[in-house]
Amino acid sequence: MDELKIQVLKALEENAKLKDVELADMFGIDVEKVREIIEELEKNGVILKYKTIVNWEKVVEDHVYAIINVKVSLSREKNYDDIARRIAKFPEVHAVRLVSGEYDFQVVVKGKTLKDVAFFVAEKISTIPEVKDTVTHFVLRTYKEEGVTLFADEEDRRLAIVP
Amino acid sequence: MRRIEDLRSSRRIAKRVQEIRPSGIRRFFDLIAGRDDIISLGVGEPDFSVPWRIREEIIYALEKGYTAYTSNFGLKELREGIVEYYKKFGVKAYPEQVIITCGVSEALDLAVRTLVDHGDVVLIPEPCYVSYKPLTYICNGEPVELSTLPDFKLTYEKLMSAANFKPKILIINYPNNPTGVTYSRRELEEIADAAVELDMTIISDEIYAELTYSEKHTSIASLNGMEDRVIVLNGFSKSFAMTGLRIGFAIAPLDVLEGMLKIHQYTMLCAPTPSQIGALEALKCLDEVEKMRTEYMRRRNYVLKELKKVTELPKPEGAFYAFPKIPIEMSSEEFAEKLLIEKSVAVVPGNAFGESGEGFVRLSYAVKFEKLREALNRIVDFIDKYAKS
Questions:
Q1: pLDDT, tens digit, for every residue of B91-114?
Q2: Residues of B in contact with A161 (CB under 8 A)
Q3: Is residue A160 in a domain?
């Protein structure tokens, strides 16, 4: 992929709200060119979605995240992809990753209460025939999300005029 | 509190020091003091913070008790690292030729003091960084300003026009503060030719070397026949956003380095040890530099496009400055002051960098993109308003 496209992707990854005009300004190219690039990247599935990183810690609405380590047993009929797809289809499931180490999948589940999440795991994940074992870790506080730190930024301590 | 201008009436102050003009920026600084509604494009240091890996290393160094002096030269590993690092700009040197200083400011001071005898002529292309002339004065040298107008580029002809002054030293700075101009290898060859012809030693301030936007930086010390004629100055302040940690260095011919070391050992002794350890880590963080460079380049493109709507300016190819011409009937200081009062945007008047900077202002784009956008909108508005009236 050419350098310009990668630069556009990096800029959007950092700030999805950048307008086409702003991107054109940044890279010194025409707005039409920016639109063309983005359209292509969206069509090719390089850009999947534009989402917002929310600091839910600041919102009153109750919610709970849990990281669930899932151990599975494989068979000729059922491989990792098949099992992962089954898990991923639940809207409560935020992320599914195949990981190395003691467990097979790391599943992130979002629910309204601890009970919700616990029951979801017990009723929907553990009951999948290939699932042998689950361990649930509730998230107590998030410090960094998607590369963004959730604590206050350092202030700009520079003098206003420096030669 | 007494103001600095009063120095002239205080007889105990050495004449040499009395004669140094206070920096033009100082007055401007007073105007801004205490106002927090200002978008400042007047800041000559990065808006990024020191990469965390470097800070961690410094914290760790303190924990482990790396708080004693280092050798006068600086940490051996750091000097070796710098030799390795500077190969990317074409320079082949030995660690023995490197001294670690408290920022480039000290390296510059050492170089000037080492080379300048009473009455020696120092050729200073202007507009330029504010300290070259005062440092020459302090050494009883004779600064000769050389205007780089109209395009702010030094050429063979411009340099040779100063031949009659019999200059001994030339101080160059590229990528340039305040103009953002830099030099290609071919252009540097012209400067080198003139240096040989006039038999000048070059002090080359390359602090912005990492921040170039079209061609990679070439050190003038890497040119044929220049190795014994050039003192390279650089440091970690701008490229690694480490301004307050004060680590610079010089790569110099051995005789010059020996002289610099003498002064350094009697004045500074050594650069701060934890900062030196941070600098060592910095050399492993070049991808962080690339990230910052990319961001500066985006801003540069934007600034250039906006300013071109209302005025002309030399294409900023490096550092994080633009140096536009004031397109309305106003002096540099008038423009900067009115802009500050009417639009709450701070820029630095061009004449702070020498007389040939009159009629220009320096804009630093070391500010977040959103702020930069707002500031430029206001500047364009401001110019439009006065252009019509």
A1: 999 999 999 999 999 999 999 999
A2: 25, 28-29, 32, 40, 42-43, 346, 348
A3: no
